[in-house]
Amino acid sequence: MSRLKDKVALVSGGSRGIGEAIVRKLVSEGAHVVFTYNTNKERAESICSELGSDTSKVIAYPCSLEDKSSIQAVVDQTLEQFETLDILVNNAGIIRDGLFLAMDDKDWADVIQANLGGTYFFSKAVCQQMLFQKKGRIINLSSVVSLIGGIGQANYAASKGAINSMTKALAAELSGKGITVNAVAPGLIETEMIQNLKSLVGDLKKKVPCGRFGEPSEIASLVAFLASDEAAYITGQIITIDGGISLQSRH
Amino acid sequence: MDKSKDEILQGVTDCLVNALGVGEDEVKLESSLVKDLGAESIDFLDVVFRLEKNFGIKIPRGDLFPENLLTNPAFISDGRITDSGMQELKTKLPHIDFSEFEKEPLVSNLSDVFTVGMIVDYLFGKLAEKTGA
Q: Does the ipTM exceed 0.90?
């Protein structure tokens, strides 16, 4: 499928895990993709050279979620290169898990700043261009813990819950201008992050009605759909993709 | 060379047509952005962005359209803008002619002062500043 042919997408945190899968999927759908990475330049460059082609340009920029000017620079460079920006995927985020009473204040602040603040800065940086175009897609990566909680994840859950609320507020403001805003709330997905959880709480798969963890590519497929014209009438939604782990009947 | 008011009006019309989705023939100097052209809150921001791009100028937030005005309770009484409130409006928005509005200064009618002509007058002054006229 080439649902995103010649569209320009910006994906924050695209060098690994779910972000990398999103980059791969958007490229496979025909989009030009700019993605950011934090420190792993080598891996980012490897993805660019693997996926880039004449029909789909793939570019990576280093970027810090805490640094507004660094985020603005990425958006400016994207517009300089492509003169348009159709899709923003706010994927980048961090985890600093710890029981609430023992949580370091810095871990609280860092997670809120990176996850919520990064989503805020990126969204703000692209909105003006999307207003000019009267068209755009903003897709925020939330988490199922924003809906059901998670032990040791007060900071992460709060940041993702705030992203859900921001998604709805932005959708209310921008949908009349042709810009849809949605969030995707994954459950347990096979990434490096999940490896840490596995060692803490044993076999989590039994808690998932579908009996397995999700694949990053499954999240990417949902993101690609939301980015496409097929999803033009979906806005302000938090779409859970968790193999059923949030179903109340299982608890 | 300075732009004439007619040239400015054409640029403003282009911006309003694109931002508000109205027809060019609907945009007249006396048109109210809200009542005649259907502008909503985010449209004001959209219009400012387009004016900045079209005219190559920077419009400080709140300079053309007011933001966070009349936050002092003393500026409003029974849905009407008080004398001190009117003074505040005139100070912060010197490019707007409030003479008609002042006759019946209802808060609900404040948006009437945001007309196409008001934008043209603002830009005329702003562009003259830019060229040092």
A: no
